[in-house]
Amino acid sequence: MSSSDLQSRIVRYGDLRPCKTAFIDAHTPGSDQKENFTIIGGGVSESPDQHVHIRDTPGFNIGAAGQPPKCRNSLHSHTTAEVFFVLKGRWRFFWGRWGSAGEVVLEEGDIINIPTGIFRGFENVGTDYGMIMAVLGGDDAGGGVTWAPQVIEEAQAHGLVLGENGVLYDTKAGQALPDGVAPMPVLSDAELSAFPELPVQDVVRGYVARYQDLMALSRDMPAKVIGPDALLKDRPGFEVSFLSRNSLDAGPITPDKPVVLMPMRGHWHLKTDALETVLNPGDTCLLKPGETHVLTPSMTGEASLYRVTSTDDPAGATWSQG
Questions:
Q1: What values do phi and psi take at 29, rounded to 5?
Q2: How confident is the model at residue 291 (pLDDT cuts 50, 70, 90)?
């Protein structure tokens, strides 16, 4: 394996290319300044303008959302897993038919595994531009997104129409639905009744992990964050672990499944047979099965990293798991 092959599977934070027209609420006031990033896989974008950095899909997708203060992502639901950790800023996650069933605020390094089958949204409640990194279940993460009816209606009022083919059309730019393509229908009251309104305590207890707790848990070994025997017990099609300076793996690691490395704090030295490099916060690195590597912090000071590993489990958590 050549060094250029691995280099092509490292996406640097400074090289991320945003899409500002990725979703149906791209013109809706309050949501019109957000940026969407598709790092690994096809992502969930509804726009052909979305740039994909790495098209390989290791059983899940990696993306990110960048938003200025007070900018929000509108209410939507997924049939596959949607996991976020806060890279920069302070973020409010809210859920329910109208976004009023509950909310939780996450700080830098915190992680949330949002239950499938509920309407959810998120907002930058910090004072500066914020960034959250996302892990999305399955190879086709865009196939299971459903918008709350009011989001579709508000978007139409501002010129954006979502076709039943999953493509956005901007009527203000002179675009129209193609012949034979109808607008995406809104959910009926009967269909909406199937979306649960989860209590705050259930979501916080079963689906949120705090950064400082993970730092403590990773004192001697990598902390299991998401998985059947992890802090957040789930089988979303991937497992998430958390590494800090004192919880490094002993010796070289040879994964038998695809692995994605996502540094949170500090600078991490990655060595393989083909390449030595440093991964920094916001960088994303995809390692293939059989790619032996050693990972260590390269400088003194705080160091933390999220590691995502593909599994054979179906891609999608269920909200009823306790």
A1: -55, 135
A2: very high
Cα distances (angstroms) measured from residue 51 to each of 21, 33, 189, 263 = 11, 17, 36, 22
C-alpha distances in Å from residue 231, one per residue of 110, 111, 153, 234, 253: 13, 11, 39, 9, 23
For residues 99-133, one letter each, b for 16 or more C-beta atoms within 10 angstroms of the residue's C-beta and e for the rest, the string is bebbbbebebbbbbbbbbbbbbbbbbbbeeebbbb
pLDDT tens by residue, 132-181: 999 998 887 655 689 999 999 999 999 999 888 888 888 988 999 999 99
Taking only the tens place, the pLDDT of each residue in 209-229 is: 999 999 999 999 999 999 999
Domains defined for the chain, CATH in brackets: 13-207 (2.60.120.10), 211-310 (2.60.120.10)
Of the candidates 116, 297, 101, the one whose C-alpha atom is nearest the C-alpha of residue 207 is 116
For the cut 80, the answer to whether the pLDDT of residue 318 exceeds it is no
**Location of structure tokens 């400082």:** 212
CA geometry: angle 16, 20, 24, nearest 5 deg: 130
Alpha helices in the chain (DSSP H): 3-7, 149-157, 189-192, 200-207, 211-217
